[in-house]
Amino acid sequence: PTAEQMRIAQIIDTRTEDPNLKDKIKQAMDATRKTEDEVCTALHDCDNDLDRAVNMLLEGMGQ
């Protein structure tokens, strides 16, 4: 597997760790108009901190 595939697998695994993560994903998608993949990556990079992830996406750093 490539590094990108490994990263995606890690992101998918973290979705089951936080029971509120689906709500955070939806809120971030609504706030930023980004795709689920972009939002999941941002949340993962920000340790599932919704505010930080939204700010990162809005500032364009999540691309």
TrEMBL record:
GO cellular component: cytoplasm; nucleus
Keywords: Cytoplasm, Phosphoprotein
SUPFAM superfamilies: UBA-like
CDD domains reported in the protein's UniProt record: UBA_UBP2_like
Gene3D superfamilies: DNA helicase RuvA subunit, C-terminal domain
Subcellular location: Cytoplasm
Cell membrane found in the keyword field: no
Domain of life per record: Eukaryota
Name of this protein: Protein lingerer
Organism: Zootermopsis nevadensis
